[in-house]
Amino acid sequence: MKLLILLGAAALMVTSAASADPLGERKELMKERGAQMRVLAPVAQGKAPFDAAAVLDALEKLGANARATDVDALWPAGSEGGDTKSAPAIWSDMEGFKAAEKKFEDDIAAAIAAKPADLSAFQAVFGPVAANCGACHQKYRL
After folding, report:
1. Is residue 2 a part of any domain in this protein?
2. How deeply is 50 buried, as exposed, middle or buried, from its count of CB atoms within 10 A (0-12, 13-18, 19+)?
3. How far is residue 5's CA from residue 113's CA, in Å, rounded to a whole number?
């Protein structure tokens, strides 16, 4: 029983800590996302060699990042200010922003599931992933 209480308290502390600095946390998640895109985009553009294992690793890291992105916790009301590139459209169109994030997560999951074995297969599944980034940046990023 004591163990259950301790586990519950630990989970609460982790949840509280996770949302203690939404601006900082969302910046870190987006930096991670950008780092994986800088691995994948040159491969898709033919500027870096295709390596199936490296591509799948980067896709899986991107998928973990997408799953860790809790829109409600990271873009709460009142977090519009400060040193942020998040556009006001996020808060005025929260449902649209959530839908864009969900589409990104779904497209990443599909790319991972496809396990692209060559450049052509990778380009086919990476296109929608990259398009999500561009669309979201146009509407929801300053």
Report:
1. no
2. middle
3. 38
Mean of pLDDT over the chain = 88
- Mean predicted confidence (pLDDT) in 95-110: 96
> What is the predicted pLDDT for the residue at 4?
45
> Residue 26 belongs to what domain range?
21-140
Contacts 24+ apart (CB under 8 A), 31-36: 32/61, 32/65, 33/62, 33/65, 33/66, 33/133, 36/61, 36/62, 36/65
**Counted domains in the chain:** 1
Query: Residue 110 maps to which CATH number?
Result: 1.20.120.10
The residue to which tokens 């295709």 are assigned: 50
Tally of CB atoms within 10 A around 45: 11
Return the pLDDT at 20.
82
Query: pLDDT over 90 for what percent of the chain?
Result: 72
Instruction: State the distance between the two ends of the chain, measured CA to CA, in whole angstroms.
Output: 49
